[in-house]
Amino acid sequence: MAKSPAKSTIWEFLQSLGKTFMLPVALLAFSGILLGIGSSLTSDAVKQSMPFLDNTLLQLLFLWMTKVGLVAFIYLPVMFAVAIPLGLAREEKGVAAFAGFVGYATLNLSINFYLTVANVIGDAAAEKAYGVKSILGISSIDTGILGAIIVGVMVAKLHARFYTYQMPDALAFFGGARFVPIITVLVLGVVGLLVPLVWPWFAAGINGIGAGISHAGPFGPFMFGTGERLLLPLGLHHILVALIRFTEAGGSQLVCGNEVSGALNIFYAELACADTKGFSVSATSFLSQGKMPAFLGGLPGAALAMYHCAKVENRSKIKALLLSGVVACVIGGITEPLEFLFLFVAPLLYLFHAILTGLGFMTMGLLGVTIGNTDGNLIDFLVFGVLQGTATKWYLVPVVAGIWFVVYYAVFRFAIVRFNLTTPGRETDSRESDASDSPVPGTKTGHGGYNGEVILRALGGAGNILALDNCITRLRMSVQDMDLVDDATLKANGAIGVIKLDEHNVQVVIGPQVHLVKNQLQHLMVS
């Protein structure tokens, strides 16, 4: 809700941008649980060891869970493209979200136009060079989450500029909010023509990295594991992963008389070959086993550190979020729900995570562990490790994962406390030093137990609020006069803390019922 445009700072924009990620990330965590449970209970190994699960109705249920659990992973980029303008818009949020989808589709259609005119579509070699993939049914360049974020931010800026745009009387029907998706089509259509011009440079660089990794000896798996984590936020990791798994960059080997290239291809060929006595370390070093120290030990340790570093009164609020992330990571091999909790608030911790993931790959290879497949989760550990016999050295995984758990926990806890990092359950600014104090008892009689009238007066009244929004636990506002904001009254009426970012931007920490308080304030401001 906004009365007039307030000057936005970089701090405010980054905070707001980070807030928009939470909507798709929350779905990602839940989808990871569905996918992890469904896929594990439909595997042949599980059905053989627990025959009572091999029931038609149960298997259909588990298959359904697997299918619907894929929604967030298949469509994650478009969800970001929609969620970012939805979260950043202060008015006409529905229009902003609609324009986000329109912008993402337009970008890919425009890329498709360029690729078609340039005779890339239909040429297998050219499609491979550009990284062409089906995006929303469109043959386009897979720009991943990076492309979706760019689209989302551009659409949000276009929406803020044009949702009140006045057209001449003859074209008035196309003015206002209706103009936002129109200008979005034009702008993103032009941007789509530029993407193929720069993308080959990205692809060539990553191809070079892949070739270098395959010739780096024991450091190859380290470079691969670290690089894959670093590229993940940009959506470019799939190119590196595909190179190692399916091309000569992942090695070549004779299996049952056939020349096989690519680490995953080699592993599957050895798995199917009756004459194979074991799996090649040179291939499995790039596969599931390398992820297991970080996925089965490290990230759960980081989650525990974030839980212990949260304020005591907030731990119950974040427990479900962290537990769902751990389940998605350990059972489904889906790490984003946990990684996204610290990626944007503590990039150095993410760099540490990337390096430790790479060291996990190198350590498993040096120890001679041979567990293949792709996910690095508990299912891979059981099916491709334990069930394949002790020759895989699966018994070393819990040992290394335990060490990674301790290291992650210690480093994350030290860094979060030492540098006051904004992980879940903590305050975002050192100026909110009194936010941990118990709220002073006061009158709370509205929906959710909060008195909206008192809170509104403590904010200086409706006339003082220029813009009003909320994230998971906070009211986010731009105010005309910060001196009119009464911290003591706000805390006496349910606020956990008050953060004054600058002379116009303030955040009031409420908790999980913040949306109810925002609704009260919006109702009072228009009544």
Tell me the β content: 5-15%
Number of DSSP-assigned strands: 8
Computed Rg:
26 Å
Helix content: 55-70%
Q: Report the uncertain regions.
A: 1-7, 428-444
Largest sheet: 4 strands, antiparallel
Main-sheet strand order equals: 5-6-8-7
Question: How many structural domains are formed by the residues?
Answer: 3
User: If helices are DSSP runs of H or I spanning 4 or more residues, what is the number of helices?
Assistant: 23
Secondary-structure class: alpha+beta
Mean pLDDT: 80
Global morphology:
globular
What would you say this structure looks like, in words?
By secondary structure, this protein is of the alpha+beta class. Helix content is 61%, strand content 7%. It has three domains: 10-211, no CATH class; 271-418, no CATH class; 447-526, Gyrase A, domain 2 (2-Layer Sandwich). Mean pLDDT is 80; it is low at 1-7 and 428-444. The chain contains 23 helices and eight strands. The longest helix is centred in the middle third of the chain and has 36 residues, at 179-214. A four-stranded antiparallel sheet has the order 5-6-8-7. A two-stranded antiparallel ribbon has the order 1-2.
